[in-house]
């Protein structure tokens, strides 16, 4: 295996030091402060609650789209798939051009119609049935592919940091995994319900800094432990760095199967997730700002 050397030298259990707890507490403290600040600024109307008053800056809009797209299934899941299958997994992100079409073609229509959600836009454009269909499909897709994975990841992190924590209710013992999962639901539900979309967007901006900084540091640390980039290529082999990787190993077949296997499903995924990203884009003050990624 390419990363057998790292796995052999890794300790069975990582020690959580006082510095680690300090950083974790600081992280959650910043999130709570952001949520509190947003709640104080919020106005008691639907436009401010659902669309953040349509006056978010371009950097908040971009950060919210980034953080909504990149989650635990990418940081952990796709990184693991890349470690086993190579950079061919990057095909997943080749559908990003759909966002340019969304921003330049569809966003002006959404903003002029003054809708809050994409199902609402479909109802105005077609009929009430189309609104319910998109709402049901979007809810099922996000619960299965995003929300469930995020809750599970939160439970795993909590059970890893505090494995001995448990709660007994009526003779039933609840372990740390389920306690962590419930805490994720309660905490995210609270700041979302109290602060609305503005709280979500600004918290996403904080998450982007953590995601990018953490990913960069982890990559640098891993390369140092392995011995550098050339050592990584030596252990992985050239096949792992081939973007057009055949489905059949040993040189049989060609790379065309990768395109159809990866791109068609993610193209459908882009369509299903476009409703959320479109709603984020219309938070800008004018559609020209949403298109160009800048504020008015």
Describe the structure.
- It is a single chain.
- It contains twelve helices and two strands.
- It has 296 residues and is mainly α.
- Helix 2 (18-41) crosses helix 9 (176-226), helix 4 packs across helix 9 and helix 8 packs across helix 9 (176-226).
- The radius of gyration is 22 Å and the shape is globular.
Please give the structural blueprint.
Elements: H1 4-9, H2 18-41, H3 46-51, H4 58-69, H5 72-85, H6 97-113, H7 118-125, H8 128-161, E1 167-169, E2 172-174, H9 176-226, H10 229-236, H11 256-281, H12 287-292
Antiparallel strand pairs: 1-2
> What are the low-pLDDT stretches, counting only 5+ consecutive residues below 50?
1-12, 250-276, 280-284
The number of helical runs is: 12
Count the beta strands: 2
Distance between the termini: 52 Å
Mean pLDDT, to the nearest integer, reads 73
**What's the order of the H and E elements?**
HHHHHHHHEEHHHH
Structural class: mainly alpha
Name the helicity range. over 70%
Radius of gyration over all CA atoms, rounded: 22 Å
% residues in beta strands: under 5%
Q: Give a quick account of the main beta sheet: strands, pairing sense, barrel closure.
A: 2 strands, antiparallel
Q: Strand sequence of the main sheet, in spatial order? A: 1-2
User: Can you tell me the overall shape?
Assistant: globular
Q: Return the domain count.
A: 1
